From TrEMBL:
Keywords annotated in UniProt: Membrane, Transmembrane, Transmembrane helix
InterPro entries attached to this UniProt entry: YkvI-like
Transmembrane domains' residue ranges: 38-58, 79-98, 110-127, 139-155, 175-194, 206-227, 247-274, 286-305, 311-333
Protein name stated in the entry: Uncharacterized membrane protein YkvI
Keyword Transmembrane helix among UniProt keywords: yes
Length: 340
């Protein structure tokens, strides 16, 4: 039970903690100053949403996101959100591939080498369906989370920062809504594809609470660190590098490798959501679908990593607010529907 719950927890975190999040760019886009309450609300909302999505997926024993989506947003809006999820997964996976290129550039490699490496790795990963992704998450994510937390805590101690010095200033609390909403659609896509593999509701509780608390804690510490170097962030495509410049080059290398794996896990989760949906329409091997999808994505990465996040993420965060509302109120309106 615990092992299975942790497996799903790492799948959820791997879907969420990609290039935008792990680099700090996404956190800074939504949070920043006066956001402690916003991050607390995000933790609560995120756990509730994961719990609802996994329960619906488990009850329907789903293998792709469409049945889960239909139950959450209703029959009338299913087609609209089906298209939205597909576009979301497509564009955010483009962001991840661009993030791989940006990471390569930080070490003076060609942008296209970074893009090529992640594309080849994605094709190799999906030669062995979903099991390869789950196995990779269980190895990579504890390293990534541990490394990220270590860097942030060391930075907090070195700079003598107080984690709770601005508790009276919480005017940005509304940021919790678009930030949570932004991360909901990929979770519907990915968790909708594993409903037939979940064995008990205990697994669901472990996965949803564990992922919410883990992401909430790291988000709070990370955001607090970024506030201290706010003036420098304009100079960096990847804000994490503004923190790492205070430390030895070896630390930069280590965290850059882990950052790349964060990018890779989210790209893989996005590709999983896309191919599981397409396979219900087109009966072709997963690896072939992955190749075709990547061929379509790669030209779009030329827009640049921070540009893509700056424009795409806030738009999706707002568009997904309806889905977030449906998920948070799911037990209430489901009970009302059953009583009719």
């Amino acid at each position: 039970m615990w092992r299975a719950g942790l497996k799903w927890m790492f799948l959820i975190i791997g879907t969420t903690i990609g290039a935008g999040y792990a680099s700090g760019r996404e956190l800074w886009q939504f949070f920043g100053h006066e956001s402690g309450l916003a991050i607390l609300l995000f933790t609560l909302f995120f756990s509730i949403c994961c719990n609802v999505i996994m329960n619906v997926s488990y009850e329907k024993q789903s293998t792709d996101y469409l049945p889960v989506l239909g139950d959450i947003v209703g029959v009338k809006l299913t087609k609209l959100y089906d298209v939205m999820i597909f576009l979301y997964l497509f564009t955010t996976t483009v962001v991840m591939i661009a993030g791989s290129g940006a990471t390569g550039q930080a070490f003076n490699f060609s942008y296209w080498w970074g893009v090529l490496v992640i594309a080849v790795c994605l094709i190799i990963l999906f030669l062995k369906d979903i099991s390869g992704l789950l196995a990779m998450n269980q190895v990579i994510l504890p390293l990534l989370l541990g490394g990220l937390l270590y860097i942030l805590l060391i930075f907090t101690m070195d700079q003598e920062l107080s984690l709770f010095s601005h508790l009276s200033e919480q005017r940005n609390w509304t940021a919790a809504f678009p930030f949570t909403a932004l991360n909901i659609l990929p979770l519907i896509a990915v968790l909708g594809a594993i409903g037939n593999k979940v064995r008990s509701k205990q697994e669901i509780w472990i996965a949803s609470l564990g992922s919410g608390l883990t992401l909430g804690t790291i988000s709070f510490i990370y955001n607090n660190s970024l506030i201290q170097i706010a003036d420098e962030l304009l100079l960096y495509e990847i804000p994490l590098f503004a923190i790492l410049k205070h430390y030895p080059f070896g630390m930069l290398i280590f965290m850059s490798i882990l950052l790349w794996f964060a990018i890779f896990t989210t790209a893989a989760a996005g590709v999983l959501g896309i191919v599981s949906r397409l396979q219900s329409i087109i009966n072709v091997p997963i690896w072939l679908l992955v190749i075709l999808i990547l061929i379509a994505m790669i030209p779009l990465t030329t827009l640049g990593f921070s540009t893509l996040i700056s424009y795409i993420y806030p738009i999706y965060g707002i568009l997904n607010l309806y889905v977030l509302t449906r998920l948070l109120l799911y037990p209430i309106w489901k009970k009302m529907e059953n009583n009719k």
